[in-house]
Design goal:
The protein is of the alpha+beta class. It folds into four domains: about 45-55 and about 315-395, conserved putative lor/sdh protein from methanococcus maripaludis s2 fold (Beta Barrel), CATH 2.40.420; about 60-65 and about 215-315, Elongation Factor Tu (Ef-tu), domain 3 (Beta Barrel); about 70-100 and about 185-210, RNA polymerase II/Efflux pump adaptor protein, barrel-sandwich hybrid domain (OB fold (Dihydrolipoamide Acetyltransferase, E2P)); about 105-180. It has four helices and 23 strands. Strands 1, 16, 17, 18, 21 and 22 form a six-stranded mixed β-sheet that branches. Strands 2-11-14-13-12-15 form a six-stranded antiparallel barrel. A four-stranded antiparallel β-sheet has the order 3-10-8-5, with no helix packed on it. The longest helix is centred in the first third of the chain and has 38 residues, at about 105-140. The radius of gyration is 47 Å and the shape is elongated. The relative contact order is 0.19. The mean pLDDT is about 85. This is Efflux RND transporter periplasmic adaptor subunit. Keywords: Coiled coil. One of its GO terms (molecular function) is efflux transmembrane transporter activity. Belongs to the membrane fusion protein (MFP) (TC 8.A.1) family.
């Protein structure tokens, strides 16, 4: 027995001592203190909703084209004997200024021949008038009754007068053709290209150059239906927009790193939708765009230039302009109520544009709109308010 006790007693004793020590360690360990975790309220910036009037500006792009453009056509035959120094692409001409000269010798001879024919016709008429007077006097001396028209030489007199008118018409035509040898600008214009040169023999109808008037330029501006809806067009609109109803347009273009502006007016809406883009074109007209105006450093516009246009549109009343980052899920705002709790509010957006949106309903004046992006938002969650932000957004852009 003693051997068995020695064999199993000591291990059991060691185990028992270990259990006792473990028990005392467990019951004597310090108790952990539990604390409630405080709720952290996010600090947010806000903007106070303020109704206002907003004038919408519609943005579009287009290419500058002249209002009047066409070929300069020769009206006579001949050889070009002289051209003006400005007769080249880009050259300016005032109305009536001579652009080139055609050899006038043939037309000077034709004029002299026409003058001779007029003189001969005048002489023939004078002789016939004298003969008619003599015939009338003789009839009055010996004749009885009404004289015959042939006796009084009335048909001959009528023929002589007609011959004189024809000779004078031929003289006017000869003088007209002679004047046409000096080809003049039909209006104040600029040359787009040159199609004839010094020494060239041309015929009537030959194109000499392509010119365009410098009084007005136009820009065709493609617009969507949505953009067109914000342009203030009169109710009696029939294509052309008249007088004071023409919306103002600002044309913008860049030269050498600087942006320049030209005032314009929207003068008409074209009556056809582009079948490829499904857009309709509005036409803006610029007055004297190719001149340098006194007191202005604007360079002349160039035909074919691509420009930006800002069209002054309708004025929207009692609307709210909100930063685009404050809008969530397309039409939801986070509105802060009187207890500083976030409320998810649907609103009606009438217009979206870069940087902001225009809201027509769903907000009340003075309500606080949360501007701070939050990762998690629960309707009714509490927030802390930082400094308010109320930027000025009086104009709208698209």
């Amino acid at each position: 027995m003693s051997d068995n006790m020695k064999k199993f007693g000591w291990p059991l004793l060691i185990i028992a001592v270990g259990v006792i020590i473990a028990f005392f360690l467990i019951i004597s360990r310090p108790t952990a203190r539990t604390q409630d975790t405080p709720v952290v309220k996010p600090l947010v910036r806000y903007e106070a909703a303020r109704p206002r009037e907003v004038t919408v500006t519609i943005q579009a792009q287009g290419t500058v084209t002249p209002l009047t453009q066409g070929p300069l056509i020769s009206e006579v035959n001949g050889r070009i004997i002289k051209t003006a120094p400005e007769f080249a692409a880009g050259g300016y001409f005032e109305k009536g200024q001579t652009m080139l000269w055609i050899d006038p010798a043939e037309y000077q001879l034709a004029r002299e021949q026409a003058r001779l024919q007029v003189a001969q016709a005048e002489l023939a008429l004078a002789r016939e008038q004298q003969e008619a007077d003599i015939a009338r006097e003789e009839w009055q001396k010996v004749g009885r009754g009404e004289p015959d028209s042939l006796v009084l030489r009335l048909p001959q007199l009528k023929q002589a007068r007609a011959a004189l008118e024809a000779a004078r018409a031929a003289l006017r035509l000869a003088e007209l053709n002679l004047s046409r040898t000096a080809v003049k600008a039909p209006y104040a214009c600029r040359m787009r290209d040159k199609q004839a040169a010094l020494g060239q023999v041309i015929t009537r109808g030959t194109p000499l150059a392509t010119i365009y008037a410098i009084d007005y330029a136009e820009v065709r501006l493609p617009l969507t239906d949505e953009q067109l809806a914000f342009i203030d067009i009169p109710l009696n609109y029939h294509g052309d927009i008249r007088g004071e109803h023409q919306p103002a347009v600002t044309i913008r273009a860049s030269f050498a790193g600087r942006e320049y502006q030209w005032p314009a007016r929207l003068i008409r809406i074209e009556g056809e939708i582009d079948p490829m883009t499904r857009m309709i074109f509005a036409v803006a007209r610029i007055r004297r765009p190719f001149d340098r105006h006194p007191g202005s450093d604007n360079p002349p516009l160039t035909v074919g230039m691509f420009v930006d246009a800002d069209i002054t549109g309708k004025t929207l009343k009692n609307v709210f302009v909100v930063d685009e980052n404050a809008v969530h899920n397309r039409n939801r705002l986070w509105v802060i109520d009187g207890q500083n709790r976030l409320r998810i509010r649907p609103v009606t957006i009438v217009r979206r544009e870069p940087g902001r949106v225009i809201i027509s309903s769903g907000l009340n004046p003075g309500e606080k709109i949360c501007l701070t992006p939050l990762n998690t938002v629960v309707d009714g969650m509490s927030v802390l308010l930082a400094e308010s932000t109320t930027p000025e957004r009086e104009q709208s852009h698209e």
